[in-house]
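ok trying again, last paste got cut off:
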Amino acid sequence: MSTTTPRTRTAVSCTLLVTALGAGVTACGSDGNPLAANPYDAADEISFNGPTDAGKKADPDKPLEVTTKDSDGRITDVTAVDTAGRYVSGELDADGTRWHSTSPLAAGDHYTVRVSTEDGDGAPGRKVLAFDTSRPQSQKRLNVTFGPDAGAYGVGQPITATLDQPVRDKAERAVVERGLQVESTPAVDGSWYWVDDKHLHYRPQDYWPANATIDVYSNLENIRISDRLWGGSAKPLTITTGDRIIAVTDAATHQMAVWKNNQMIKQIPVTTGKPGFDTRNGVKVVLAKQYFVRMKSSTVGIADFYDLPVYYAARVTWSGEYVHAAPWSVGSQGYANVSHGCTGMSTANAQWFFKTIHEGDIVQVVNSKGQPMEPFSNGFGDWNIPWQKWVLGSALTAAGTPDTTPQAVQARLRPQGL
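nice, full thing came through this time. structure:
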């Protein structure tokens, strides 16, 4: 499971260390800095399995390992970083005698490894190592395209990743998923979900924070995914969110409540789908705003004929469900459901809604007799999958072990419309 927590420095203990992608870890010392004194050259106290002869290159498929030669000394810190600034994840044994990488090295790259040690008397040592990795034999690359386009969106906008070729094996999916990074400010936890072999969606447990910045990038380039497939390029993406806008339509009371940053700012009389054309229940994400749409029954396969010019339309499904102005049904708005599935309101209210709502904002329908919103095939119905099930769509989550942290439980219990 990917995390939206920004890359930070995390010390687990003086003898246990995990170096995260994009992070360095500083070991403990009497003054919090083992390099406060002039460190001695620790070359005679450590060994590593990388190439030492000029011209030789390391196999990127083999883990990097650093060990101590001195029975009285120990390793306190190891960081390995490539030319792109990507750090290698690694673990240090509890006794400080061995560090090994836990994430793959990039092929055809140059690495700098900084090792900090401590001898039996507590004196600090340091050694900087460097090596190159060989290029992959296969030139088949997996390229990734992130979505949506860069820009400002509502708090319900999922992140998408489209692969240019299918990945079916779970172990290979795990490699891909580890390389796809999402970071938000403010930080929130989230997870990728494999929609199919070529498409992933990413969302937090709850909606994105208001006024957040979300950065998406890939660390997959030149990383081995399988014997015949290596990570390719991906253009990074940055989107932002604005206010938390959520519109909740109650099909039973024929009212829409519009919330901004958890405060209701307007209540609008509406009409939704009549019997046989009931509006879908559930959470939807605004896909687009269109000032004018020509709505024809023939384009969506409805036998009940209509052909209407529609204004101030916010699209919420690809199959043609909108929130829009419906001046022909004002007499029913607030009293009855008479539409073919859309949510209709007066022209004045639709104009206000059109100006207030944004792509990526949430439109939720409750108490309708319609079918539930589809999770993926008809727009962004991602939020209708409970978080407990969403995390199981990640290749990094063991089946049957959903996230049961207090934050995750609270997110599942919190009403989605508020």
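cool. The first strand starts at residue 18 and ends at 19. The two ends are 26 Å apart (CA to CA).
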